[in-house]
């Protein structure tokens, strides 16, 4: 990195609110980093938290090093257009751009009159970046960067560089509603995988879970107190967008822990009430959690790689585009496509299907449920099952036993895939498959490798010795890619679904999670290694009714 001289920053800050942060201390010797590992360690540990000048110098260094578009507005552009007054500006003279979607400027220990400076910077940004159509996180980001800027012009240049960053595979700010909404969906997918207990709480208490998750960026950039937001900014500028996901997941984990400790009753309420409750928790998070603890929790989550998250985000973007949302689209309500008016099952209620839908990957949960097969209409024939279900991906299977127990599976892959194995029963599918049971309460069982990636690593060592193929890093496992993309031991942890003329099997490895005979009449359920599930109902059962639902207008991964 090119060395950047420390500047006189802090003129916008209300120092009475800054506690023991030093304004006047000179930057410590370490403001130029050549070792990325050391830079990450210092960012995560809060090395610059007590020294305002040092943090400012490091930030300027990081922002200057961002690869940007050839024509990126700089401080000189701002001075030419707005001037560069550090005196009081009237916010009403600089209305916030429409693309911030009503997001207010957080105080963040700034002087009251400094809010006008944030408005002025954002107003100039709107003029210089006409393609931005939705960016509600920009006011908090701008307010934070103003802390460590010598003047408005420098703050403008810093924000411009974040917006104009063109490093392949890296983004810092969502600038369209399409990108923003797909990020919300991606966050929902990550909650499914990494915070199942918190997600279960959301399903039990909120009428619209996706609406609750749409606030995730605001929790991190807007609702967190300044001392927390500044520490997040340290790692965000160093490690990128993925940090925001990590911190939001950690916030949700702490929120669930607080609710559990309080013994709050799990009653369904309007999503707005749940959103307000989480917002109040985040705004007062300092009462129960320190910034160090929040970041420690965030980085303890064994999250997918940046590449895998990007792939998931792109898949979600494509599903939104299928729903008619474009890059230039302004805010539009996007909701799960299940409601009592358009859904009728003989096995589950509209409420139960909404609970199941909330666990489905977000890009499919937007699709309309479509009944493909039911034994009550199409009869108990495996051939008819295949003929009605082939060509659809993914599908949802629901089973009610003669004892009244209800279970099922989300199956990510077209049943036609079974033909690849000829007459031989062979497994296929992806790590997005999961099992569930509905009584006494809904429980979901996902691919065991999601929670225990070391199992993939152990399985690979056996395969690698036999095939001589290079090992696959388990941190790069994508849950929506087929097991055949990896050197996984299919005999143990990647037996998702299989079928032939005699039976269908879901989940394998030392047992089958679901085995159903050719007459769709008798079944068995037992623990399997792929999903590490208990029996989903009575171990040997008779089927009273079986339904398969498709996802109208769904696009295969």
From TrEMBL:
It is a peripheral membrane protein. Its main location: membrane. Keywords: Cytoplasmic vesicle, Membrane, Synapse. It is found in: Cytoplasmic vesicle membrane; Endomembrane system; Synapse. SMART domains: TBC (SM00164), TLDc (SM00584). The keyword Nucleotidyltransferase does not apply. GO terms for cellular component: cytoplasmic vesicle membrane; endomembrane system; synapse. Residues 346-552 form the TLDc domain. InterPro entries: Rab-GAP-TBC_dom (IPR000195), Rab-GAP_TBC_sf (IPR035969), TLDc_dom (IPR006571). PROSITE patterns: TLDC (PS51886). May act as a GTPase-activating protein for Rab family protein(s). Involved in neuronal projections development, probably through a negative modulation of ARF6 function. Involved in the regulation of synaptic vesicle trafficking. PANTHER family: GTPASE-ACTIVATING PROTEIN SKYWALKER, NUCLEOLAR PROTEIN 7/ESTROGEN RECEPTOR COACTIVATOR-RELATED. Interacts with ARF6. This is TBC1 domain family member 24. It comes from Sinocyclocheilus rhinocerous. The lineage of its organism: Eukaryota, Metazoa, Chordata, Craniata, Vertebrata. The gene is tbc1d24.
